[in-house]
Amino acid sequence: MAFKRIFGLVMDSVGAGAAPDSGKYGDQGADTLGHVGQFYEGNLQLPNLARLGLSNLHGTPIMGVPVNPDPHAYYGKMQEISAGKDSMDGHWEMMGLPVTKALSTFPNGFPQDLLDKLEAFSGRKIIGNRPESGTKIIAELGEQQMRTGDLIVYTSGDSVIQIAAHEDVIPLAELYKICDYARSLVNGPEYLVGRIIARPYVGPDAQHFTRTANRRDFTLEPTGETDLDRLQSAGVHVVGVGKINDIFSGHGIDEGYHNESNMDGMDHVDHVMAEDFEGFCFINLVDFDAMYGHRRNPQGFGQALMDFDRRLGTVLANLRDDDLLLITADHGNDPTYTGSDHTRELVPLLAYSPSFKQGGSLGIRSPFADFGATVLDNFNVTGNGRGHSFLADLN
Ligand SMILES: O=P(O)(O)O[C@H]1O[C@H](CO)[C@@H](O)[C@H]1O
Ligand SMILES: [Mn+2]
Ligand SMILES: [Mn+2]
């Protein structure tokens, strides 16, 4: 069946259990959904996701989330083939562009030549320069930055250069300019970095610093055509909600919305759903990741899932018979795991339309490109051969 509209919703970080290659990443036993469920000891209430089949796909049921003997959705998991476990890898792979060559990471801090160039361009001294949690590093160095105007530059296990700046000390426009310059330094061949991330924050002192929604990701331009470009070239309307626009550097996107939060993102989804269009709406909800996964906060993670589930209820009620909703994730970020990095996990896959007579299993799909191949198939757009459509399984 061909759907008029497809809504592809990425719950950023919501992994469904360790991937077979998790050992290579030091992530054995990670399980974002399973461990959040255990943390809640049966009180994780996700009635809408449960009805669709969230616990059915998880293997062992998620505590508190009953397995539905008659699931409303087609359910499965997806396994990533990209070398990295960051958002960019996950989303590009979903859109037919796996990132199989590892991007540059900086476990010992950034090389001197990069630091020199950044200092010369910005006229500011660089402090930090190590892998660290973003909230920890501003608590440690933010007051120093307020006194000196130094630039806090840090990284993580991902291919990222993150620049934290107090909004009253380094104005946003200046921060973005520095990030844009940093972007220009690492587009290859020597360094190929996934993202430069501007991390503005506010607050009077270390106890009260909070990061703001003015975060901006300066992502590597897609290194080839993606399914979004293919859809757009074929005249299929493409809407991006949340980080999607950043992740694809705007390529292949006709209409973009920036999210202030998950709930703001769901407001955008409601808004787009009320529009009459034919096409693909690609949505990223990042709070699971940025506010709870990296912060190793299972309590907050579970609450964010429950808040999302509530809003999903409205989406399900508003879906039309010729709409398809695909729900998935880009990687794991188990809030009970050691460290503060993403975890290499399988991701959930749920496919639902009110027109379905029943649900069923889609098995384990790999690569993530099966997702994009399904969208292309629906709109009769030719892909690059990456991924297999599961459209014919949905009825
Ligand atoms: O600790 P914070 O600053 O949130 O950074 C995290 O956010 C980045 C992007 O998801 C990750 O690479 C990780 O470093
Ligand atoms: Mn992500
Ligand atoms: Mn992240």
From TrEMBL:
One of its GO terms (cellular component) is cytosol. Its cofactor is Mn(2+). It holds the Pfam family Metalloenzyme. It is found in: Cytoplasm. One of its GO terms (molecular function) is magnesium ion binding. Mn(2+) 2 binds at D289, H294, H342. Residues 4-381 form the Metalloenzyme domain. It comes from the Bacteria. Binds 2 manganese ions. One of its GO terms (biological process) is metabolic compound salvage. Keywords: Cytoplasm, Isomerase, Manganese, Metal-binding. Pathway: Carbohydrate degradation; 2-deoxy-D-ribose 1-phosphate degradation; D-glyceraldehyde 3-phosphate and acetaldehyde from 2-deoxy-alpha-D-ribose 1-phosphate: step 1/2. Belongs to the phosphopentomutase family. This is Phosphopentomutase. It comes from Levilactobacillus namurensis DSM 19117.
